[in-house]
Amino acid sequence: MFEIRTRAADSRARTGTLRLAHGTVETPAFVPLATRGAVKTLEPRDVEALGYEMVLGNTFHLFLSPGPELIDAYGGLGAFMRWPRPIITDSGGFQIFSMGHGGVADEIKGRGRSGAARGSASAILGLTEDGVRFRSYIDGGERFMAPETSMAIQAALHSDIALVLDECTPFHVTRDYTARSTERTHRWLERCLDWHARHGPRDQIVYGIVQGGVEADLRVESTETVARSRCGGIAIGGSLGQDKPQMHQVVDWTTAALERVTPERPRHLLGIGDIDDLLVGVGLGIDTFDCAMPTRLARHGVAIVPDPARRWRVDLAKSRFRGSQEPIMEGCPCPACAAGFTRGYIHYAAHAGETTGPRLLTLHNLSYIQRLMSDLRDAIDRGVYAETVAAFMAGAAPSVR
Ligand SMILES: [Zn+2]
Q1: How far apart are CA 279 and CA 9, in angstroms?
Q2: What does pTM read for this prediction?
Q3: How far does the centroid of ligand 1 lie from the alpha carbon of residue 252, in Å?
Q4: Which CATH fold would you assign to the domain 2-290?
Q5: How far from 240 is each of 169, 251, 321, CA to CA, in Å?
Q6: Residues with catalytic annotation?
Q7: pLDDT for 277-328, tens place per residue?
Q8: What whole-number distance in Å separates Cα of residue 55 and Cα of residue 64?
Q9: How far is the CA of 295 from the centre of ligand 1 (A)?
Q10: What would the pLDDT profile of 269-283 be if each residue is shown by its tens digit?
Q11: Count of alpha carbons within 13 Å of 2, Cβ hemisphere only?
Q12: DSSP 3-state assignment of 290?
């Protein structure tokens, strides 16, 4: 299901093709989020027209609403949301476990990431070998998710790639806790694969998830354990550290071990997608990435631009863009820029609460990332990956195509 086409000589970067139940995905690729069955503000045809071949749905959210039975009755998530191409579904582990530490659940409820919400009571009611009990953010009711539950939900969603349920260990726990939690995740991996072998859709691929926190030996051990399993691909999850150098280090340990023990299987890096992280991650041998960044920034009035000094971002909601006649990004071929929308209009829409603004910036940001990934694939195939990354790191814009 995964063919590697070109391997870079001076890094672990590679190009390939994922052949999945609902189509093919050229890699390395970025996967936009359709967390709750929609790429926010876009229709599937918009996402397709930008050149994307796969989106990511989330088991946790779709479990709580509208429920896997309802989606199954439509023939799966793709048929329900009218996306005809491949879908990868996250297992729900990250969302369940991040509830206890603030973050994802707080964002859903519209609370800040810091302050009072941070100290609110955990929504995890109990974690045992069997699975995890938690409180629904929708109706406050208790829910239980076992490894088998997650696989059954993903079977009902008919995703092309399913992820095993993992305990997502946070950064601040002890090494001992991380070690024990990683071992449990490995036992859950086997239970997920057992369930899938008996009941899962035949054309669904299951990815195992490497945990191990920020400890080199635990990461390598987890990588080797996951590689020994029957999983079809490998995802890298959990705490990747407290800053970018540490995150890149953790990914490096993992892909170095993968290169040694299972170089042919596809690799997905969970929840990472800043421009510099994509550039580094591809060089470390990651095949697919998903991240809320481009779509979430768009909803906050932030455009992705070729400005490394400002983390490739410009906040158009800032007052200095009031009345600006400048384009969102000079020379950008995306539907928003091509139609002539100005920074001043985006600024106005952000403050007026007009949903056209987030939609235009979502088109722009996703177009930027798609063209960047396309350039990286070309660069790897042409043997000029390092030079191309250096140019992007120095502020080059992706090709106009
Ligand atoms: Zn644009």
Answers
A1: 16
A2: 0.94
A3: 32
A4: TIM Barrel (3.20.20)
A5: 10, 8, 36
A6: 90, 290
A7: 999 999 999 999 999 999 999 999 999 999 999 999 999 999 999 999 999 9
A8: 20
A9: 13
A10: 999 999 999 999 999
A11: 25
A12: strand
